[in-house]
Amino acid sequence: MASKSAYVSRHVExxxxxxxxxxxxxxxxxxxxxxxxxxxxxxxxxxGRKFVTLDDVHVRKFALADPHGFVRENQxxxxxxxxxxxxxxxxxxxxxxxxxxxxxxxxxxxxxxxxKAVAPDSLAGRVSTIELLPFSQAEIDGCAPASFxxxxxxxxxxxxxxxxxxxxxxxxxxxxxxxxxxxxxxxxSRQVWLxxxxxxxxxxDLPGFTNGKGSALLPRLLGHAAAAAxxxxxxxxxxxxxxxxHKSVDRWLxxxxxxxxxxxxxxxxxxxxxxxxxxxxxHFLDSxxxxxxxxxxxxxIERNRAEIGLLLECFVLAEISKALVHHDQPLYLxxxxxxxxxEVDFVLEDPAGMTVGIEVKAxxxxxxxxxxxxxxxxxxxxxxxxxxxxxxxxDRIDRLAERIFALPVAMLWID
Length: 415
Known about the structure:
Elements: H1 13-20, E1 25-29, H2 36-47, E2 50-53, H3 57-65, H4 67-73, E3 77-80, H5 88-98, E4 105-109, H6 113-117, E5 127-131, H7 137-140, H8 148-153, E6 160-162, H9 169-175, H10 179-182, H11 187-205, H12 218-227, H13 235-242, H14 246-258, E7 262-265, E8 281-284, H15 287-293, H16 298-303, H17 306-324, E9 332-337, E10 343-349, E11 355-360, H18 372-381, E12 385-392, E13 396-401, E14 404-408
Parallel strand pairs: 1-4, 1-5, 2-3, 3-4, 11-12, 12-14
Antiparallel strand pairs: 6-13, 7-8, 9-10, 10-11, 13-14
Helix pairs in contact: 3-4, 4-5, 9-15, 11-15, 13-14, 15-17
Protein backbone atom coordinates (compact mmCIF):
# COMPACT_ATOMS: atom_id res chain seq x y z
CA MET A 1 0.00 0.00 0.00
CA ALA A 2 1.08 3.60 -0.60
CA SER A 3 2.61 5.57 2.26
CA LYS A 4 -0.19 7.11 4.28
CA SER A 5 1.70 10.43 4.59
CA ALA A 6 2.43 10.79 0.87
CA TYR A 7 0.21 12.47 -1.71
CA VAL A 8 -2.06 9.86 -3.30
CA SER A 9 -2.59 10.43 -7.01
CA ARG A 10 -6.23 10.61 -8.02
CA HIS A 11 -7.30 8.77 -11.14
CA VAL A 12 -9.76 11.49 -12.18
CA GLU A 13 -7.08 14.20 -12.36
CA UNK A 14 -6.47 13.57 -16.06
CA UNK A 15 -10.22 13.63 -16.75
CA UNK A 16 -10.58 16.99 -15.00
CA UNK A 17 -7.74 18.50 -17.04
CA UNK A 18 -9.20 17.13 -20.26
CA UNK A 19 -12.62 18.58 -19.40
CA UNK A 20 -11.09 22.00 -18.66
CA UNK A 21 -9.76 22.09 -22.21
CA UNK A 22 -13.24 22.03 -23.79
CA UNK A 23 -15.84 22.89 -21.12
CA UNK A 24 -16.82 26.32 -19.86
CA UNK A 25 -17.28 25.07 -16.31
CA UNK A 26 -15.94 21.86 -14.77
CA UNK A 27 -17.43 20.61 -11.49
CA UNK A 28 -15.79 18.13 -9.14
CA UNK A 29 -18.47 16.71 -6.85
CA UNK A 30 -18.24 14.26 -3.99
CA UNK A 31 -18.62 13.97 -0.23
CA UNK A 32 -16.84 16.29 2.16
CA UNK A 33 -13.30 15.15 2.94
CA UNK A 34 -13.03 13.03 -0.20
CA UNK A 35 -10.08 15.07 -1.50
CA UNK A 36 -11.85 17.52 -3.84
CA UNK A 37 -10.10 20.60 -2.45
CA UNK A 38 -6.70 18.90 -2.49
CA UNK A 39 -7.13 17.91 -6.13
CA UNK A 40 -8.49 21.33 -7.11
CA UNK A 41 -5.57 23.09 -5.40
CA UNK A 42 -3.14 20.80 -7.23
CA UNK A 43 -4.71 21.66 -10.58
CA UNK A 44 -4.84 25.37 -9.71
CA UNK A 45 -1.15 25.29 -8.86
CA UNK A 46 -0.31 23.60 -12.14
CA UNK A 47 -2.15 26.07 -14.39
CA GLY A 48 -1.85 29.33 -12.41
CA ARG A 49 -5.50 29.36 -11.39
CA LYS A 50 -6.76 31.34 -8.38
CA PHE A 51 -8.20 29.23 -5.54
CA VAL A 52 -11.03 30.56 -3.37
CA THR A 53 -13.04 28.53 -0.88
CA LEU A 54 -16.46 29.34 0.48
CA ASP A 55 -15.55 27.49 3.68
CA ASP A 56 -13.83 30.82 4.52
CA VAL A 57 -16.58 32.85 6.19
CA HIS A 58 -15.32 36.19 4.79
CA VAL A 59 -15.18 34.83 1.25
CA ARG A 60 -18.64 33.33 1.68
CA LYS A 61 -20.11 36.64 2.91
CA PHE A 62 -18.82 38.39 -0.23
CA ALA A 63 -20.23 35.66 -2.49
CA LEU A 64 -23.63 35.77 -0.77
CA ALA A 65 -23.87 39.59 -0.77
CA ASP A 66 -22.67 40.23 -4.32
CA PRO A 67 -22.47 37.07 -6.46
CA HIS A 68 -21.91 38.94 -9.74
CA GLY A 69 -19.16 41.05 -8.19
CA PHE A 70 -17.60 37.93 -6.72
CA VAL A 71 -17.48 36.27 -10.15
CA ARG A 72 -16.02 39.41 -11.78
CA GLU A 73 -13.27 39.58 -9.16
CA ASN A 74 -12.42 35.87 -9.27
CA GLN A 75 -11.82 35.10 -12.93
CA UNK A 76 -9.97 31.92 -14.04
CA UNK A 77 -10.43 30.38 -10.64
CA UNK A 78 -11.37 27.42 -8.50
CA UNK A 79 -14.48 28.08 -6.42
CA UNK A 80 -14.43 25.50 -3.64
CA UNK A 81 -17.65 24.31 -1.91
CA UNK A 82 -19.84 26.40 -4.22
CA UNK A 83 -23.08 24.97 -2.78
CA UNK A 84 -22.63 27.34 0.17
CA UNK A 85 -23.55 30.29 -2.11
CA UNK A 86 -26.14 29.01 -4.63
CA UNK A 87 -26.68 32.40 -6.31
CA UNK A 88 -23.18 32.09 -7.75
CA UNK A 89 -24.61 29.67 -10.33
CA UNK A 90 -26.70 32.46 -11.90
CA UNK A 91 -23.68 34.77 -11.92
CA UNK A 92 -21.53 32.07 -13.53
CA UNK A 93 -24.19 31.42 -16.17
CA UNK A 94 -24.22 35.08 -17.16
CA UNK A 95 -20.42 35.22 -17.22
CA UNK A 96 -19.84 32.11 -19.35
CA UNK A 97 -22.64 33.03 -21.75
CA UNK A 98 -20.89 36.35 -22.40
CA UNK A 99 -17.47 34.68 -22.68
CA UNK A 100 -17.71 31.00 -23.66
CA UNK A 101 -13.94 30.31 -23.59
CA UNK A 102 -13.36 26.87 -22.03
CA UNK A 103 -11.65 26.13 -18.77
CA UNK A 104 -12.27 29.41 -16.95
CA UNK A 105 -14.03 27.89 -13.95
CA UNK A 106 -13.33 24.82 -11.85
CA UNK A 107 -15.90 24.42 -9.08
CA UNK A 108 -16.26 21.85 -6.32
CA UNK A 109 -19.31 20.81 -4.36
CA UNK A 110 -20.08 18.46 -1.50
CA UNK A 111 -23.55 17.74 -2.82
CA UNK A 112 -24.64 16.46 -6.21
CA UNK A 113 -24.98 19.97 -7.61
CA UNK A 114 -27.02 19.19 -10.67
CA UNK A 115 -29.80 16.95 -9.38
CA LYS A 116 -32.10 19.82 -8.40
CA ALA A 117 -30.47 20.08 -4.99
CA VAL A 118 -28.62 23.36 -5.56
CA ALA A 119 -27.88 24.46 -9.10
CA PRO A 120 -30.41 25.79 -11.62
CA ASP A 121 -31.31 23.77 -14.68
CA SER A 122 -30.17 26.73 -16.80
CA LEU A 123 -26.53 25.59 -16.44
CA ALA A 124 -27.28 22.51 -18.54
CA GLY A 125 -24.79 22.18 -21.37
CA ARG A 126 -22.31 24.51 -19.71
CA VAL A 127 -20.87 22.14 -17.09
CA SER A 128 -18.86 18.92 -17.20
CA THR A 129 -19.34 17.07 -13.92
CA ILE A 130 -16.78 14.61 -12.53
CA GLU A 131 -17.43 12.59 -9.39
CA LEU A 132 -14.67 12.19 -6.81
CA LEU A 133 -15.43 9.66 -4.10
CA PRO A 134 -12.95 8.76 -1.32
CA PHE A 135 -9.80 6.84 -2.28
CA SER A 136 -10.23 3.67 -4.28
CA GLN A 137 -8.12 0.67 -3.30
CA ALA A 138 -6.15 1.07 -6.53
CA GLU A 139 -5.32 4.67 -5.57
CA ILE A 140 -4.28 3.61 -2.05
CA ASP A 141 -2.06 0.89 -3.52
CA GLY A 142 -0.61 3.25 -6.14
CA CYS A 143 -2.04 1.27 -9.07
CA ALA A 144 -3.54 2.43 -12.34
CA PRO A 145 -7.34 2.18 -12.76
CA ALA A 146 -8.28 -1.46 -13.07
CA SER A 147 -10.04 -2.90 -16.12
CA PHE A 148 -12.48 -4.98 -14.03
CA UNK A 149 -15.66 -3.59 -15.63
CA UNK A 150 -14.37 -3.93 -19.18
CA UNK A 151 -13.25 -7.49 -18.50
CA UNK A 152 -16.56 -8.35 -16.85
CA UNK A 153 -18.62 -7.26 -19.86
CA UNK A 154 -16.24 -9.22 -22.10
CA UNK A 155 -16.24 -12.26 -19.75
CA UNK A 156 -12.47 -11.95 -20.03
CA UNK A 157 -11.33 -14.11 -17.10
CA UNK A 158 -9.34 -17.38 -17.21
CA UNK A 159 -10.97 -20.69 -16.35
CA UNK A 160 -8.49 -21.20 -13.52
CA UNK A 161 -5.68 -19.06 -12.09
CA UNK A 162 -4.15 -18.94 -8.58
CA UNK A 163 -3.75 -15.25 -7.70
CA UNK A 164 -3.57 -15.27 -3.88
CA UNK A 165 -6.01 -14.02 -1.27
CA UNK A 166 -6.86 -10.34 -1.01
CA UNK A 167 -4.29 -8.77 1.31
CA UNK A 168 -5.56 -7.13 4.51
CA UNK A 169 -9.18 -7.41 3.41
CA UNK A 170 -10.78 -6.82 6.82
CA UNK A 171 -8.50 -3.84 7.48
CA UNK A 172 -9.37 -2.39 4.07
CA UNK A 173 -13.09 -2.79 4.74
CA UNK A 174 -12.97 -1.24 8.21
CA UNK A 175 -10.78 1.65 7.00
CA UNK A 176 -12.73 2.63 3.89
CA UNK A 177 -11.37 5.36 1.64
CA UNK A 178 -11.68 8.78 3.27
CA UNK A 179 -8.16 10.24 3.02
CA UNK A 180 -7.97 11.40 6.64
CA UNK A 181 -9.21 8.01 7.89
CA UNK A 182 -6.70 6.17 5.69
CA UNK A 183 -3.97 8.38 7.16
CA UNK A 184 -4.71 7.36 10.76
CA UNK A 185 -2.38 4.85 12.39
CA UNK A 186 -4.93 2.55 14.00
CA UNK A 187 -8.54 1.46 13.75
CA UNK A 188 -9.65 3.20 16.94
CA SER A 189 -8.46 6.64 15.79
CA ARG A 190 -9.97 6.07 12.34
CA GLN A 191 -13.36 5.24 13.80
CA VAL A 192 -13.26 8.22 16.17
CA TRP A 193 -12.57 10.46 13.16
CA LEU A 194 -15.32 8.83 11.08
CA UNK A 195 -17.93 9.20 13.82
CA UNK A 196 -16.91 12.84 14.34
CA UNK A 197 -17.17 13.34 10.58
CA UNK A 198 -20.72 11.94 10.52
CA UNK A 199 -21.72 14.06 13.53
CA UNK A 200 -20.33 17.19 11.88
CA UNK A 201 -22.29 16.57 8.68
CA UNK A 202 -25.49 15.85 10.58
CA UNK A 203 -25.16 18.85 12.89
CA UNK A 204 -23.74 21.49 10.52
CA ASP A 205 -24.11 20.59 6.82
CA LEU A 206 -27.38 18.69 6.57
CA PRO A 207 -29.59 21.20 8.44
CA GLY A 208 -28.69 23.84 5.85
CA PHE A 209 -30.51 21.78 3.22
CA THR A 210 -33.57 21.06 5.35
CA ASN A 211 -34.22 24.62 6.57
CA GLY A 212 -33.58 23.29 10.05
CA LYS A 213 -36.57 20.92 9.93
CA GLY A 214 -35.75 17.68 11.69
CA SER A 215 -32.10 18.67 12.14
CA ALA A 216 -31.98 17.20 15.65
CA LEU A 217 -33.01 13.81 14.21
CA LEU A 218 -30.41 13.64 11.45
CA PRO A 219 -27.59 12.14 13.58
CA ARG A 220 -30.01 9.41 14.71
CA LEU A 221 -31.13 8.80 11.12
CA LEU A 222 -27.52 8.19 10.08
CA GLY A 223 -27.13 5.67 12.88
CA HIS A 224 -30.33 3.81 11.99
CA ALA A 225 -29.41 3.88 8.29
CA ALA A 226 -26.04 2.31 9.12
CA ALA A 227 -27.78 -0.41 11.11
CA ALA A 228 -29.96 -1.12 8.05
CA ALA A 229 -27.08 -1.06 5.54
CA UNK A 230 -27.20 -3.96 3.10
CA UNK A 231 -30.92 -4.58 3.59
CA UNK A 232 -34.11 -3.62 1.76
CA UNK A 233 -35.15 -0.06 2.61
CA UNK A 234 -37.99 0.02 5.13
CA UNK A 235 -39.13 3.64 5.38
CA UNK A 236 -41.83 2.81 7.92
CA UNK A 237 -39.33 1.17 10.25
CA UNK A 238 -36.90 4.09 10.02
CA UNK A 239 -39.74 6.54 10.53
CA UNK A 240 -40.90 4.60 13.58
CA UNK A 241 -37.47 4.85 15.19
CA UNK A 242 -37.52 8.62 14.72
CA UNK A 243 -41.24 9.22 15.40
CA UNK A 244 -41.74 11.02 12.08
CA UNK A 245 -43.65 10.22 8.89
CA HIS A 246 -42.09 8.06 6.19
CA LYS A 247 -42.14 10.94 3.66
CA SER A 248 -39.74 12.91 5.87
CA VAL A 249 -37.39 9.93 6.07
CA ASP A 250 -37.55 9.53 2.29
CA ARG A 251 -36.61 13.20 1.78
CA TRP A 252 -33.73 12.95 4.24
CA LEU A 253 -32.39 9.77 2.64
CA UNK A 254 -32.50 11.52 -0.73
CA UNK A 255 -30.42 14.33 0.74
CA UNK A 256 -27.91 11.83 2.16
CA UNK A 257 -27.66 10.33 -1.32
CA UNK A 258 -27.03 13.75 -2.83
CA UNK A 259 -24.25 14.23 -0.30
CA UNK A 260 -22.67 10.94 -1.47
CA UNK A 261 -23.02 9.23 1.91
CA UNK A 262 -25.33 6.42 0.93
CA UNK A 263 -27.07 5.00 -2.10
CA UNK A 264 -30.38 3.25 -2.61
CA UNK A 265 -29.94 0.50 -5.20
CA UNK A 266 -33.13 -0.08 -7.18
CA UNK A 267 -34.33 -3.59 -8.05
CA UNK A 268 -33.54 -4.93 -11.51
CA UNK A 269 -36.57 -5.40 -13.72
CA UNK A 270 -37.14 -6.89 -17.14
CA UNK A 271 -40.03 -8.05 -19.28
CA UNK A 272 -39.15 -11.71 -18.70
CA UNK A 273 -39.54 -11.52 -14.93
CA UNK A 274 -43.02 -11.00 -13.55
CA UNK A 275 -42.38 -10.94 -9.82
CA UNK A 276 -39.51 -8.97 -8.39
CA UNK A 277 -38.81 -7.14 -5.16
CA UNK A 278 -39.95 -3.55 -5.71
CA UNK A 279 -38.05 -1.87 -2.89
CA UNK A 280 -34.43 -0.68 -3.13
CA UNK A 281 -31.52 -1.81 -1.02
CA UNK A 282 -29.71 0.64 1.22
CA HIS A 283 -25.92 0.88 1.12
CA PHE A 284 -23.33 3.28 2.44
CA LEU A 285 -20.76 4.51 -0.07
CA ASP A 286 -17.90 4.00 2.37
CA SER A 287 -17.53 0.77 4.32
CA UNK A 288 -15.33 2.42 6.93
CA UNK A 289 -18.03 4.98 7.74
CA UNK A 290 -20.68 2.26 7.92
CA UNK A 291 -18.45 0.17 10.21
CA UNK A 292 -17.76 3.11 12.52
CA UNK A 293 -21.46 3.96 12.80
CA UNK A 294 -22.26 0.29 13.48
CA UNK A 295 -19.38 0.12 16.02
CA UNK A 296 -17.87 -2.84 14.17
CA UNK A 297 -14.23 -3.66 14.90
CA UNK A 298 -12.01 -6.62 14.08
CA UNK A 299 -12.94 -8.07 17.50
CA UNK A 300 -16.63 -7.69 16.64
CA ILE A 301 -16.05 -9.61 13.42
CA GLU A 302 -14.27 -12.42 15.28
CA ARG A 303 -17.42 -12.83 17.39
CA ASN A 304 -19.89 -12.45 14.52
CA ARG A 305 -18.67 -13.14 10.97
CA ALA A 306 -22.02 -11.98 9.57
CA GLU A 307 -20.91 -8.38 10.15
CA ILE A 308 -18.12 -8.66 7.61
CA GLY A 309 -20.52 -9.91 4.94
CA LEU A 310 -22.73 -6.82 5.22
CA LEU A 311 -19.76 -4.44 5.21
CA LEU A 312 -18.11 -6.29 2.32
CA GLU A 313 -21.15 -5.48 0.18
CA CYS A 314 -20.69 -1.76 1.00
CA PHE A 315 -16.99 -2.08 0.22
CA VAL A 316 -17.68 -3.68 -3.17
CA LEU A 317 -20.32 -1.06 -4.01
CA ALA A 318 -17.80 1.69 -3.24
CA GLU A 319 -15.17 0.13 -5.52
CA ILE A 320 -17.68 -0.36 -8.33
CA SER A 321 -18.92 3.22 -7.96
CA LYS A 322 -15.37 4.55 -8.23
CA ALA A 323 -14.68 2.39 -11.27
CA LEU A 324 -17.81 3.65 -13.05
CA VAL A 325 -16.20 7.09 -13.42
CA HIS A 326 -13.55 5.58 -15.72
CA HIS A 327 -15.76 3.24 -17.72
CA ASP A 328 -16.22 4.19 -21.38
CA GLN A 329 -20.03 4.21 -21.21
CA PRO A 330 -22.68 4.76 -18.55
CA LEU A 331 -23.85 1.72 -16.60
CA TYR A 332 -27.11 1.28 -14.70
CA LEU A 333 -26.70 -0.28 -11.25
CA UNK A 334 -29.42 -2.36 -9.59
CA UNK A 335 -29.94 -5.49 -7.49
CA UNK A 336 -31.79 -8.69 -8.39
CA UNK A 337 -34.26 -10.72 -6.37
CA UNK A 338 -36.74 -13.14 -7.92
CA UNK A 339 -40.01 -14.51 -6.57
CA UNK A 340 -38.22 -17.55 -5.14
CA UNK A 341 -35.82 -15.44 -3.09
CA UNK A 342 -32.71 -15.93 -5.26
CA GLU A 343 -30.62 -12.78 -5.18
CA VAL A 344 -27.72 -11.03 -6.88
CA ASP A 345 -26.17 -8.20 -4.88
CA PHE A 346 -25.32 -5.96 -7.85
CA VAL A 347 -26.42 -5.93 -11.47
CA LEU A 348 -24.69 -3.72 -14.03
CA GLU A 349 -26.41 -3.01 -17.33
CA ASP A 350 -25.00 -1.06 -20.28
CA PRO A 351 -27.02 1.04 -22.75
CA ALA A 352 -27.37 -1.96 -25.09
CA GLY A 353 -28.87 -4.07 -22.29
CA MET A 354 -25.84 -6.30 -21.76
CA THR A 355 -25.82 -7.38 -18.13
CA VAL A 356 -23.23 -8.36 -15.52
CA GLY A 357 -24.28 -9.83 -12.17
CA ILE A 358 -22.01 -9.60 -9.10
CA GLU A 359 -22.63 -11.65 -5.98
CA VAL A 360 -20.52 -10.95 -2.86
CA LYS A 361 -19.41 -13.67 -0.42
CA ALA A 362 -17.18 -13.15 2.61
CA UNK A 363 -16.23 -16.84 2.62
CA UNK A 364 -13.15 -18.33 0.93
CA UNK A 365 -15.21 -20.93 -0.95
CA UNK A 366 -18.22 -20.88 -3.25
CA UNK A 367 -21.07 -23.40 -3.08
CA UNK A 368 -23.63 -24.30 -5.77
CA UNK A 369 -26.24 -22.42 -3.72
CA UNK A 370 -24.25 -19.22 -4.23
CA UNK A 371 -24.95 -19.44 -7.96
CA UNK A 372 -28.76 -19.54 -7.79
CA UNK A 373 -29.22 -15.82 -8.22
CA UNK A 374 -26.69 -15.52 -11.05
CA UNK A 375 -28.24 -18.48 -12.86
CA UNK A 376 -31.68 -16.89 -12.48
CA UNK A 377 -30.38 -13.59 -13.83
CA UNK A 378 -28.70 -15.43 -16.73
CA UNK A 379 -32.00 -17.15 -17.60
CA UNK A 380 -33.90 -13.86 -17.38
CA UNK A 381 -31.49 -11.94 -19.62
CA UNK A 382 -30.59 -14.80 -22.03
CA UNK A 383 -28.26 -13.53 -24.76
CA UNK A 384 -27.90 -10.22 -22.91
CA UNK A 385 -26.14 -11.94 -20.00
CA UNK A 386 -22.48 -10.96 -20.39
CA UNK A 387 -21.05 -12.49 -17.23
CA UNK A 388 -21.78 -13.53 -13.66
CA UNK A 389 -19.21 -13.07 -10.90
CA UNK A 390 -18.95 -14.28 -7.32
CA UNK A 391 -16.47 -12.09 -5.44
CA UNK A 392 -15.01 -14.02 -2.50
CA UNK A 393 -12.20 -14.14 0.04
CA UNK A 394 -10.44 -17.02 -1.69
CA ASP A 395 -7.13 -17.21 -3.51
CA ARG A 396 -7.92 -18.08 -7.13
CA ILE A 397 -10.03 -17.39 -10.19
CA ASP A 398 -12.35 -20.24 -11.16
CA ARG A 399 -14.87 -20.63 -13.94
CA LEU A 400 -17.87 -22.16 -12.19
CA ALA A 401 -20.23 -22.45 -15.16
CA GLU A 402 -20.72 -20.98 -18.60
CA ARG A 403 -19.97 -17.22 -18.23
CA ILE A 404 -19.94 -17.46 -14.40
CA PHE A 405 -16.69 -16.93 -12.50
CA ALA A 406 -15.44 -16.82 -8.90
CA LEU A 407 -12.87 -14.07 -8.28
CA PRO A 408 -10.95 -12.84 -5.22
CA VAL A 409 -12.19 -9.40 -4.13
CA ALA A 410 -8.86 -7.80 -5.10
CA MET A 411 -9.70 -8.37 -8.77
CA LEU A 412 -11.84 -5.23 -8.43
CA TRP A 413 -8.65 -3.17 -8.46
CA ILE A 414 -5.81 -5.46 -9.58
CA ASP A 415 -5.52 -6.63 -13.20
